[in-house]
Amino acid sequence: MQVAIAGNIGAGKTTLTKLLAKHYKWEPHYEDVVDNPYLDDFYHSMDRWSFNLQIYFLNSRFRQVLAMKSSGKNTIQDRTIYEDAHIFAPNLHAMGLMSNRDFDNYRQLFELMENLVGAPDLLIYLRSSIPNLVGQIHKRGREYENSISIDYLNKLNERYENWIKGYDKGKLLIIDVDLINFVDNPEDLGQIINRIDAEFNGLF
């Protein structure tokens, strides 16, 4: 069984992935942020490095999904292949930071990969307001994230909401992270676990 967590930068995906992996004894798969050779360059020169960065993420996520499927284990994934294709790449294209040629190339590659991997059994979307995202980003203090603008986060949030509105590939659970604190409050985490259990009862 595969569970995946989606959400904007700073929504709490990695933290919730860790907590749920521990609770359910699932194997966690995290986003490759530390070893990504393009991230730092991208944040300093987005138009030059946007295509390289998005191809790196797509490749890394595709490999991850294939590894998860072939492992035969119950897994949970921090960020999905869909977010790259429906949110980040189109946003860069719309901002004029990725050329039409590169975007078309990217999209064709994604569609090919999407046909091969299939959707997770359950998608958990962490919905968050911009002030909450900004607070979380500052709290974790990743240097390359310091230059992320409110406008950029806003555009991403709009795309997330549009994508989730039309998501029809499988079961979907939406969690409003402005209203709960699953990090410091065990009851809030318990609420999420109860909702996941309810979804699972419908899965089998």
Overview of the structural elements:
This protein is 59% helix and 12% strand. With 204 residues, the protein is an alpha/beta fold. The chain has one domain (2-28, 38-201): P-loop containing nucleotide triphosphate hydrolases (Rossmann fold), CATH 3.40.50.300. Strands 2-3-1-4-5 form a 5-stranded parallel sheet, with helices on both faces. α3 runs antiparallel to α4. The radius of gyration is 17 Å and the shape is globular. The model has no long low-confidence stretch (mean pLDDT 91).
Topology:
Layout: E1 2-7, H1 13-24, E2 27-29, H2 39-44, H3 46-71, E3 75-78, H4 81-94, H5 100-117, E4 122-127, H6 130-140, H7 150-165, E5 171-176, H8 186-203
Parallel strand pairs: 1-3, 1-4, 2-3, 4-5
Radius of gyration: 17 Å
| CATH topology term | Rossmann fold
Into which percentage range does the β-strand content fall? Answer: 5-15%
Terminal CA distance: 11 Å
**Proportion of helical residues:** 55-70%
What is the second-level CATH architecture? 3-Layer(aba) Sandwich
CATH homologous superfamily?
P-loop containing nucleotide triphosphate hydrolases
Binding site for substrate: 31, 43, 54, 79, 84, 145
InterPro entries: DCK/DGK (IPR002624), Deoxyribonucleoside_kinase (IPR050566), DNK_dom (IPR031314), P-loop_NTPase (IPR027417)
GO molecular function: ATP binding; deoxynucleoside kinase activity
Domain Deoxynucleoside kinase: 4-198
